[in-house]
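hey all, quick one before standup. I had two proteins in the batch that finished overnight and I want to keep them in one place so we stop losing track of which output belongs to which input. First protein below, input sequence then structure tokens straight from the run.
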Amino acid sequence: MKRILCALLLLFTIFTLPGCEGVYHGIEPKPPTTPQNPGNTSNPTDDPADPKNQEFTVQILFDEEIFTGTAGIEVQWANETSVQRATFGADHVARIKGLDGDYVVTLHGLPEKYVYDANAYVATNGRRELVIEIFEHIKTKGTGKDPYSAISITRPGGYTTEIKKAGGTIYYQFSPSRAGTYYVDTIADINANEINPSIDVYNGHIAYKQYSHTVDSGASEADYTRNARYVIEVDAKNVGGVYTFGVTATQKEGLYPITVTFLLRYAGSYKNEDYYRETIPQYANAAELAARGVFGDDDIEKGTLTYPERKISDKVYVLDGSIFAINPADGYYHLKDENGQPNGPILYAKIRRRHRFFADYTPPGSSVGFEVSFTGFGEHSVICVEDPGNAALQYLGDNNDENYRPFIFEYADYITNEEGVYPVTEDLKIFLQKFSVSQRYFSDGNGWAETTAEDEIGYRLYSSEADQWLFACCYYS
């Protein structure tokens, strides 16, 4: 249909948007060979089933209500053979009969303070009643030269920007006032087919912004022009945040400056169910955690770094939970001594440093490789990077309904030692077990840890179902 639209529009000439003053003229037709009057019925037959006896209608929607300022506005239906127009009646509906087939529908005489997507509307015999949505054409302030000086926009509307040179980008940040799904659609004319816009999306907040990805499709398109649609989903818990994006475009002949208009529109309600999963309490006894204080370098036992596994054959090891138990005196897991009592070295979990089975990760848009941006479970100094480990913290319950992020972040706040470790408590053991199961680290020889450990650590490593919580653990002997 997008290609058909382009072909249908070849009858017309586009009047482009001048500068950034918010003036929108839409699509103007070439005069037809034979003048046609508004409401021309094209000699319909007496048969009520004949398509030419069926009424085609248009209403205008503005700010989610039927638009009443229709005086002086005409609706145009056009295809390869005819161009016909109708005015709006007292009920703010434009009506016409005598049409049969597919027609590109546009508005003419729309006041300059409004804008709409002239690429978007096609009437057919099976879709005769259209509602065309128009938007306020909003003037903005600021240069938008970089993400941190982005032009602030707070409400749906039409926005026009000027790209002065190849590679130029103008940045915006949207601060929604209500939850919902929003579309940012560029509306470059697919008939002219000269401008190809795109949208660079950034993650972060007002003080930290990081490039995520580029959107270069999703809306109306032709051979060269491919309009972009950036979808913003705002949960009630995110109202007040900012969504930063950059608008850029290329011109077929390399001619600049060029103007790009985009629409920001509310597309419906939205609720992120993940935000409403059960949140695991941050700690069973927060006062006890606070009383223990931070674990710095001086609090970590000295000795040789040792992992909780035993050799079962040449280059084959298995995690062994039977050699550890809780010591009631401090509430930590310890290695059992020769009498089978948990009086040996403390067992630690790597929380703020990379453990053996987190793959290296470079955040999108980064030109510098981190050893790993999310080095353990609780490392959150790299803001707004959703790597696999971080995102997984929301999906650890039996029914993927538990959110462990606050839990592990609480532990992480008490870790200042270079190794990034914390003694394993019963709560930590439960967390580690759920994490390993959710990530399929061990799965009958096909889990992530089982298939990658040999390259990472030089030998195969397996685990029983009950002992896989040890994957992130170590002690100093």
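OK second protein, same deal, sequence then tokens:
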Amino acid sequence: MEDDVAKALAYQVKKELAERYFGLRKLIEEDAANYFKKIDEIKEKLLPSLKKAWHRIYLLLVDEKFAKEFANLVGLSEPPFYEEYQKLEDPFSLLEGFHLKGWTFRSRYKNLVFSAYEHLQEETEKYQKAFLEIKVEAEVINHEIELFKEKYDLSEIMQFLKSLEAPSSFADLGHTSLEESVSTLEKALAFEKIPPPEKFLPLLPKLPPLKEIKFELEEIIDAVLKEHPSRAKEILQYVKAHSQS
């Protein structure tokens, strides 16, 4: 009778321990799954718009030399997404929805670049806000994982379970020792930290306000107009035609 009661109590303890362990583990796994889902959403919704905004700047700056100067101006060593820009079949379509402002050729082109830059800032801010949110989320989840590992140390759990059962119970699992049982369980239930968002998404700096780089940007624009006047004229004609249609 006493043996039956002891077995029943041992079973109940093991059941409650397992429910708590796997219940909490499931919650953390759901948080992690939601984190990866948000990364996919950023890739699908925000990253394409950000790339287009960068590509538009490259179109207006015409060649790679000026794209690199612009990247350096805003704090980057290399222009991001430039290889993808070079593969675009119809980059002029990036200018649809923009309008010309100004009286002279130079002022119109300059204002067009400024508008494109302001749009790039907006897209960058949206992207960075989402990036920061999931970065914090990753840190919280990893903290939860650390707390979980501390609370549910498998070695301690197995030692506790061993105290509830006969030594033969571990042999029934197909192992010859407690250490082997723990090692096998740790491999099966490995709970690794999740990677930070920069593992999956580009890490980009905050862009300076237009007023802070306006003089230097105007110098780049003047150099573009001097070296590529026909291309600049073609761009302005495209914007004018599509803003009237």
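Flagging for whoever picks this up: Residues 166-171 have pLDDT under 50 and may be disordered. Residues 49 and 123 are 7 Å apart (CA to CA).
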